[in-house]
Structure formats: structure tokens, C-alpha cells
Amino acid sequence: MSLLQVESLSKTFGGVAAVAEVSFDLEAGRVHSIIGPNGAGKTTLFNLIAGVVRPSSGHVRLDGRDITGLPPHVLAGRGIGRSFQTPQIFPDMSAAENVMVGRHLRLDRRLLPSLLGLAAVATVDRAARDNAQALLSPVGLAEHADRPAGTQAYGAMKRLEVARALAGEPRLLLLDEPAAGLNPTETAEIDRLIQAIAATGVTIVLVEHDMRLVMAVSDHIIVLESGRKLAEGTASEIRADPAVIAAYLGVAPHSDVTD
What is the C-alpha to C-alpha distance for residues 129 and 148, in angstroms, rounded to an integer? Predict the structure, then answer.
């Protein structure tokens, strides 16, 4: 069953088409990756889905409902979470507090009960803290819950941001270059984390340059080139596609290459 439908989505900047007539469906409960050479339009497409950029034309639908152009905070309320290529954490807050921030849409945010310090608010706050602690465990940060987030290692910050996104209880999780800047050990941790999240039924969309990671975790891959969809399929299908090979290696799909 399709959770997200992208229909003829396009975005132009000053007459240049960053994304052009891209369409695909994303099935629920699977790991989907968007890949392509530099300048292929991956980030723009990702931002169109996330509501950061409004499309020039086309539609995005979640569960059949049009969400085209809705702002990120509205999309978060409808079940779309995301991480960023460069971690957007609050460095002076603890790891647990960062995760609690990600849960604010699921909490009672009324001003008066908070000002009065009602017992119900305190109960909700304790539950949010417990939830944060539970989410820090699978990302390997349970023991660092009270440490300032800014003192964590870079790889830990990336995992912390994923935990914060999960605090909003997303059905669709958008991960923007989760392995960027990581060493092989940290990348392996991200690999395990993605697979663990997917096992819970959360649908994942991944934009990533690390092809080993993409091929290891993806059920479905979409390849972009010059803003257009070049191919889509399973990892094995994409790995063997002549057009994809040409896009990455700069070789014509059916040319004879000689020494």
C-alpha cells in the first residue's frame, strides 16, 4: 500500500529546472533511497517532500490526502519527521532535552495549565522524559542523556537527531545524508539504526551518497539525473541498470569501452 505519492513534481529556480516531472509511489513500512550524481536534484526533491520548498507544479499526497506545499510543522503533525545533513541540535541542552523538544507536537501545549503548574502537566513532562530516555537507548546514547548535546561526538549528534525525529512518532521518516561525515564504524551504527527503525514499521526515505549503505538497507531506490527520474527499483535492479551506471561513471549506456 502506498503511503506517499509524488505526482509530476517540478521545481524551477530562475528558469532552471531543479526537479522536473518526477513521479513515484512509496510503499509503507519500507526503506526507500533517493540517489544520483551531484546536482541531480536529490536535495530539492527531499525538501519538496518535507515542505521546506514549495513546488512549481505537481502534487505530494500522504495517504491519498494532498499535502503539497504544507509547511514542515503541519507535516510533522501529520506524521512526517526528518533529520538534517548537518545536525540541527540545541548544543546547550542535554541529549534528553533535545529529544523532548521533538515530542512537543504530541504534548499538551496550552499556556494556562503550564503557568499554573498543574499536576497533569508535570505528569506529561515526566512521560516525555521517560520517552526521551527510551529513544536514546536504541541510538546508543542512553548513558549520555544528561550531557550537553554540543559535547557529543559528531556521529552521536547525527543519531541524536534521529532520536529527536522519532519522538514525534512519525509514520514517514526523512533522513538527509545520515552517514555524511561519519567514519566506517559510525556508518555501521547508522546502518543498524535504520534497519531497527524500519523493523518497527516506520517508512523511511533516505537521501545518501554512501552507496554501500544505500544498497545494504534499501528496499526501493529512486535514481535522479539532471532533475528527472532516471530509474527506480530494488538494489539489485539499480546496480545492474546500464543507464544508472552511465550516470555515475559518465559512460554511454550501450557504448563499447576500449583501453
Answer: 15
Alpha carbon 90 to chain centroid, angstroms: 19
Is residue 125 a part of any domain in this protein?
Answer: yes
Kindly state the percentage of the chain with pLDDT values over 90: 67
Last residue of one domain, picked from the residues 165, 199, 220 = 165
Domain that holds residue 116: 88-165
Does residue 258 form part of some domain?
Answer: no
**3 state SS of 189:** helix
Domain shared by 176 and 69, yes or no? yes
Determine the Cα–Cα distance for residues 198 and 82; give it in Å rounded to an integer: 14
CA distance 224 to 38: 10
Which one, of 123, 145, 148, 120, lies nearest residue 134 by Cα? 145
221 with 234: CB under 8 angstroms? yes
Same domain as 95, residue 143: yes
Same domain, 180 and 65: yes
Residues 114 and 185 in one domain: no
pTM of the model: 0.86
- Assess contact for 26 and 2: CB atoms under 8 A: yes
* 105 & 130 share domain: yes
Sign of CA dihedral 213, 172, 223, 72: negative
Spell out the alpha helix ranges (H) of the chain.
Answer: 42-50, 72-77, 95-101, 111-116, 119-136, 154-167, 184-199, 211-217, 235-239, 242-249
Cβ atoms within 10 Å of 75's Cβ, excluding its own? 22
Residue 225 in this model has a pLDDT that exceeds 70: yes
Q: How many CB atoms lie within 10 A of CB 190?
A: 24
Nearest CA-CA partner of 8 in 70, 57, 61? 57
